[in-house]
């Protein structure tokens, strides 16, 4: 499903009977979920309209009134668009869902870096005649592939970030790990912190940030296991750190001691993503099949997926 991006800075909200008599400010903070900071900005820029006119925030609304807010301002990125390929799974005026390839960062990690997914999205938008800033709702490592959610304006990023923090965005990954696990399914609750001996590495450590990974085994041999993992939290390198700590590092993961030689990156793929569209209030779910190198490793290791896709129990 895919729709063309639109340059319409306004969104509209029709006052329902249950909000009759409420103040404009109450509606903005209630069903529209605007922050105080955004309301102040919209007030200064005359970006709030009630039935076509700029209202006082204390004015009472009536059922059937039309409230409009300009939460899609025209923005420009400081980065230059580049033709970086990626898969487009969905796009509308406020968000997009992409299939990220391996070997590229989501965004620049230093000012002069080029060739990132963000550069490619800006190029895609340029061809549409759309300008904006790329706002990833979550992150994928440079060599992790799969489904990624992008907000196209600050308002949508705010709404989706609330879903992420409330754990109502479901993220399901596939991973190929070393050896056979002792359990077919389970929950890993181990805190994660920075590794003081390595600038990039993380480790399980008391006092670290809470980290929860749900998993189930889809296929296994003595040499390797195909794992489906669901993130309850989103710590840096969470899946990689958790399984490495358990003695089952990901294949190809040099940073955490995984076996190599058959794949040039860590074997991790973001397979599915589910969330509620904040404006349409529709349940949305997207998936991306494993890329060729991941599928080839599965075949070489004899890991034939024998369970249908589902959320880990």
TrEMBL record:
Span of domain Pseudouridine synthase RsuA/RluA-like: 94-245
EC identifiers of the protein: 5.4.99.-
Record key words, sorted: Isomerase
EC class of the enzyme, as a word: isomerase
Record Pfam families: PseudoU_synth_2
InterPro entries for this protein: PsdUridine_synth_cat_dom_sf, PsdUridine_synth_RluA-like_CS, PsdUridine_synth_RluC/D, PsdUridine_synth_RsuA/RluA, RluA_PseudoU_synthase
Catalytic reactions of this protein: a uridine in RNA = a pseudouridine in RNA
Active site: 141
GO molecular function annotations of the record: catalytic activity, acting on RNA; pseudouridine synthase activity; RNA binding
Record flagged with keyword Isomerase: yes
Biological processes per GO annotation: enzyme-directed rRNA pseudouridine synthesis
Function: Responsible for synthesis of pseudouridine from uracil.
Family note: Belongs to the pseudouridine synthase RluA family.
UniProt name for this protein: Pseudouridine synthase
Organism: Planifilum fimeticola
């Amino acid at each position: 499903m895919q729709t063309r991006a639109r340059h319409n800075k306004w969104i509209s909200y029709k006052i329902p009977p249950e909000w009759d008599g409420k103040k404009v400010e109450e509606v903005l903070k209630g069903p529209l979920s605007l922050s105080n900071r955004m309301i102040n900005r919209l007030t200064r820029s005359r970006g709030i309209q009630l039935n076509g006119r700029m209202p006082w925030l204390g004015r009472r609304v009536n059922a059937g009134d039309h409230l409009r807010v300009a939460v899609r301002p025209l923005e420009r990125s400081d980065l230059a668009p580049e033709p970086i390929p990626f898969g487009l799974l969905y796009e509308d005026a406020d968000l997009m869902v992409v299939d990220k390839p391996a070997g590229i960062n989501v965004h620049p990690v230093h000012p002069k870096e080029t060739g990132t997914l963000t550069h490619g999205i800006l190029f895609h938008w340029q061809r549409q005649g759309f300008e904006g800033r790329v706002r990833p709702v979550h992150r994928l490592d440079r060599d992790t592939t799969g489904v990624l959610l992008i907000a196209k304006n600050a308002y949508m990023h705010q709404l989706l970030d609330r879903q992420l923090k409330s754990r109502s965005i479901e993220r399901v990954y596939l991973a190929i790990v070393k050896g056979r696990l002792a359990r077919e399914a389970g929950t890993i609750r181990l805190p994660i912190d920075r590794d003081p001996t390595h600038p990039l590495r993380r480790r399980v450590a008391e006092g670290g940030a809470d980290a929860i990974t749900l998993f189930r085994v889809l296929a296994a041999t003595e040499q390797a296991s195909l794992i489906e993992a669901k993130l309850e939290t989103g710590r840096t390198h969470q899946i990689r750190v958790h399984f490495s700590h358990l003695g089952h590092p990901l294949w190809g993961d040099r940073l955490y001691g995984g076996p190599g030689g058959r794949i040039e990156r860590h074997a991790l793929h973001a397979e599915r993503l589910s969330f509620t569209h904040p404006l349409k209030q529709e349940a949305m779910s997207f998936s991306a099949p494993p890329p060729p190198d991941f599928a080839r490793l599965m075949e070489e290791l004899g890991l034939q997926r024998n369970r249908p896709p589902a959320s880990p129990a």
